Amino acid sequence: MPEPGLDMADRTNDFAFKIGTVNGTGSASANGLIMQAIFRMGIPCTGKNVFPSNIQGLPTWYEVRVSGDGYSARTPEFDLIVAMNPATYERDIADVRPGGYLLHDSSWPMAKEFLRDDINFLGVPLGEMCVREFKGARVRILMKNIAYAGALAALLSMDLDVIRRMIREKFAAKPKLIGSNYKAIELGYDYAMEHFDCPLPIRLETMDATSDHVLMDGNTAAALGCVFAGATVGAWYPITPSTSLMDGFQRFCERFRKDPETGERNFFIAQAEDELAAAGVVVGAGWAGARAFTPTSGPGISLMSEFIGLAYYAEVPSVFVDVQRVGPSTGMPTRTQQGDIAAVAYASHGDTKHIALFPANPEESFHMAVEAFDLAERFQTPVFLVQDLDIGMNDWMIPKLTWDDNFAPDRGKVLGADELERIKKFYRYMDVDGDGIPYRSLPGVHPKGAYFTRGSGHTSRGTYTEDADEYTEVMDRLRKKIDSAASEVPSPAIEMREGAGMALVTIGSCDGAVREAADILESQGVPVDYMRVRGFPFDPLVREFLDAHELNFVVEQNRDAQLKRLLVTETEVDPARIHSVLDYGGFPLSAAFVAGEVNERLGLTPDDRKLRPAAERPEGAVA
Amino acid sequence: MTYIPKPAVRHPGLGANELGLHMRDYEGTISTLCAGCGHDSVTAAVIQAFYELSIPPHRIAKMSGIGCSAKTPAYFVEQAHGFNGVHGRMPALATGANAANRDLYYIGISGDGDSLSIGLGQFCHAIRRNVNMLYVLENNGVYGLTKGQFSASADIGSRSKRGVPNKSEPIDPVALALTLGATFVARGFSGDKQQLIPLLKAGLMHKGFAFIDVISPCVTFNDHVGSTKSYLYTRHHGHELVPVDFVPIRSEISAPSNNGGRTSITMHDGSMVRFRKVPEDYDPTDRLSAYEHYRSLQNRGEVVTGLLYLDPSGEDMHDDNATTSTPLSEMSHEDLCPGSEQMDALMEEFR
After folding, report:
1. What does the alpha-carbon distance between residue A447 and residue B80 come to, in Å, rounded to a whole number?
2. Which stretches within A444-590 are classed as H helix?
3. Domain with CATH 3.40.50.920 in chain A
4. What are the start-end ranges of the E strands in A33-180?
5. Is B146 contained in some domain?
6. Mind giving me the DSSP string for A296-348?
7. pLDDT digit string (tens) for A354-384?
8. Residues in chain B closer than 8 A to A307 (CB atoms)
9. How many helices (H) and strands (E) does chain B have?
């Protein structure tokens, strides 16, 4: 036992670690191997990829949280850091929690000024061993990654059989590589077993909590939703962090939508020249009767706003998936944020308002993607599926997705040739049913269905107008139509707790952290109710919930409290009831941050957890 | 003025086409453009082309952007769906509509502002994608609706109505289309219907992106002395390089007795384009040869017209994509949804 061995309480299946590497060195596959091995041991876990907007040479981290209790939010407290990038040694060493561990490559000496005496340094000569055992620079670099995975297996008590099986599966097509990967795992494993007191107090123990689950990112899930919903036209312009959505759609379509004999494809993907064109392709295809969508991010939404306004006013079904990243402008393309909430709600100039769905995890990304197409066709309008980089690009543990074969898509009020033949005259924008939703016709079906679609002023009969009354009639109907969607979008997720006097309100990927914060607060004697908004326009239940709580903390990831503002504007709730908890630095939210912020607003110090009567709270505390 | 209906009368002397439809069935609402506008002549030629080709009106999709040109789809084939979208973005709408339903006849009407300034990128990329459509650019060198600013197609030295000369290099849509790989490139003149109608017919029947630049003088803002897009200038400098006839597959082919230099090209569906006179060293199916001829005549100050280039191979963006022959918009959910069994199997790959 050459290492100092600072004490740490037993933390079986409840810890977090991260691996710092250089991007472009192939560490992603080793990191995926580690994460998947834990998952296959039946232990709930989540992985967050913290990566640069760069192809090769900059620092990148992979964070893994292991939680037998099933908590999935990011935690910024790291019990173990694998520091493989000398450029970030200083930062990585500083990030280890006191009593924790730093695993580093001891082939070269560590600078003395970085050393801390309150953490354990675990040096493994990874570079040296790989140079000895493998040939070729590229192979040595790749095998060094696998070797640290081996060392982790020993330190954390990972099941080696699980790892070996995964290596066999991964290299089934290239069996020559299996041996070298086995060897690399053993190098790290054997060294750690020999030199350290394995396993560490942070360790894994097989459970049975993941057998009904999968590991999936939200872009893959949303892509599957598009395929299962019957989307046939996808248009896009590549942009981080949404690119993998179209990659997924293409991959699934090649598999499920291609005739194996003729090679004919039941889908069309247009990689457009920019986001304006991508939106135009979607609107054109929606107008002609296909289910069409585009995946994009904030900068794309800015460019698409012109077509979004057209689709709103001309009433063309279209689906926009916004995988939010940090704005404004180019912002930080590889960091997460919820900065587009306000932008999508009223995208484009003039009076507009749009249906938006806010998934919290990849499972919801899938189901809401399907729902987005139904809503777009039912309401003949653009629908936004608003997720973010954290959901879209990170691997989440979610229940296995299932599909109901009885599902029938809602194609909305579309008149077929027979119906058009029967009616006397077709008026595109007439509110025939009194529900604000007119009937539409598709080109090519029947001469009586023809009309002139336009973004300029039009009457309920579909003709051009500059007349105030005729214009207003259509605009008022549009308002009625979109407002009526409030009870059709997914209703809010609500969890009530015994004795709760206040509430946490949130949206999207904040879900995990905020629910965990509610548990922390309850354990501190502050029970809180919970509501997660899932759709816009807001379901009437949203207003009811806010009204039922004197104190609502709205937790969201943007600087300007966009959800809070939208809630105040749209529900007309008393703003004095609503307080913001904001986090917008680009990392997924943590429960500790939320609980800490709430405590601070309530004027509670860590030593004084009980809620004091308002009169006794320090000056400046809310309510 | 479009709310005033046209009287439903037709001249008893006008016959019916193969579908039993009359010219009136291919008309639209009354034009609200200025009297004498070149665009109205183009509209008239479009009506006649559709009528003569006997295309069912509801199988046509009329696409446009914004501007005087963009209004014109309202003035022809009232029984066809039209989409007057946003400025410069008609190509994207047409691409999407065609992606969804490949079986319709797509005609896009654009202008020089719409295609060469705000929509230059979209114009270029629709060509690159080889969308199966007829793209008509009604080119007058000027912004009409905003009262007379130069457009990007205005020639150097061409004078505005107030006498100010244009000093910026023009963007030539014909040269651009040839360069970018358009599979059908032509130029017409709104004042020459005899030439324009066969061009429109050939363009409509061409599979792939067919581009016709039509010099269409703006009588209000760009038809004065000193303008290079006026009726007078175009008539004086017009050079019909390659006059053509269009022979639909259904008609019997009867060759007119023109002399020498005649070439016929069979198109993908068996219809034919007959070049009435082609200069000896010029091959209209050779892009480089077409480009050289076009540039050399242009350098002499001539406004070159006719069908300048034609790729009769009959490929379009759906061939590149290997799209199924049934329009995607007509596929049933059963055909598109992989179903629960596939989902269950797929889930095992994410463990």
Report:
1. 6
2. 468-483, 511-523, 540-547, 562-571
3. 493-616
4. 45-50, 59-67, 78-83, 96-105, 120-124
5. yes
6. E-HHHHHHHHHHHHHHHHHT--EEEEEEE-B-STT-BTTS---TTHHHHHT-S
7. 999 999 999 999 999 999 999 999 999 999 9
8. 86, 89, 92
9. 12, 13
Q: How many domains does chain B have?
A: 1
Residues B242-264 pLDDT 10s: 778 887 765 443 333 334 566 77
ipTM: 0.94
The tokens describing A94, both together, are: 């500083």
CB B135 within 8 A of CB B212: yes
Q: Which of residues 28-57 of A touch B (CB under 8 A)?
A: 39-40
| Strand duo B81-84 + B60-64: pairing | parallel
pLDDT surpasses 50 at A613: no
> Does residue A6 contact residue A118 with C-beta atoms inside 8 Å?
yes
| A493-616 belongs to CATH 3.40.50.920 | yes
Compute the distance between CA of residue B89 and CA of residue A273 in angstroms, rounded to an integer. Answer: 12
Residue B68 lies in a domain: yes
- What is A536-579 written as a DSSP string? ESPPHHHHHHHHT-S-EEEEESSTT-HHHHHHHHHH---GGGEE
Q: Which residue of B has its CA nearest to A36?
A: B351
Residue of chain B whose alpha carbon sits nearest to that of A290: B329
Distance CA A160, CA A150 (A): 9
Contact at CB, B101 and A463, closer than 8 angstroms: no
Q: Does A370 touch chain B (CB under 8 A)?
A: no
Name which of A283, A293, A365, A404 to mutate to probe chain B: the one with the most chain B Cβ atoms within 10 A of its Cβ: A283
Is B4 inside any structural domain?
no
C-beta atoms of B58 and A274 within 8 A: no
Residue B151, C-beta contacts closer than 8 angstroms, at least 6 positions apart: B111, B112, B113, B116, B117, B140, B141, B142, B143
**Chain B from 51 to 110: CB within 8 A of any A CB:** 56-59, 61, 63, 73-74, 78-86, 89, 91-101, 103-104
In this predicted structure, what is the pLDDT of residue B258? 39
User: What tokens does A415 get?
Assistant: 């008149």
Q: Which fold has domain A216-399?
A: Rossmann fold (3.40.50)
CA A527 – CA A536 distance, rounded (Å)? 28
A412 part of contact set with chain B, CB < 8 Å: no
Query: CA of B85, closest CA in chain A: separation in Å?
Result: 6
Q: Where in chain A is the domain with CATH 3.40.920.10?
A: 14-195
Burial class (CB in 10 A: 0-12, 13-18, 19+), A118: exposed
Range of the domain at B300: 23-321
Burial grade of A523 (CB within 10 A; 0-12, 13-18, 19 or more): exposed
Ranges of CATH 3.40.50.970 domains, chain A:
216-399
pLDDT in tens, B299-323: 888 888 899 999 988 899 999 999 9
Question: What architecture is the A14-195 domain classified under in CATH?
Answer: 3-Layer(aba) Sandwich (3.40)
Query: What is the maximal distance between C-alpha atoms in chain A?
Result: 91
Q: Find out whether the peptide bond into A328 is cis, omega within 30 degrees of 0.
A: yes
CATH number at residue B99: 3.40.50.970
In terms of Cα–Cα distance, which of B42, B38, B37, B85 is closest to B64?
B85
Which site among B60, B78, B86 would you substitute to test the A interface, given the most A Cβ atoms closer than 10 Å to its Cβ?
B86
Contacts of B89 in chain A (CB under 8 A): 276-277, 280, 306-307
CA pair distance A271, A286, nearest whole angstrom: 17
Residue B106 lies in a domain: yes
User: How far apart, in whole angstroms, are the C-alpha atoms of residue A146 and residue A144?
Assistant: 5
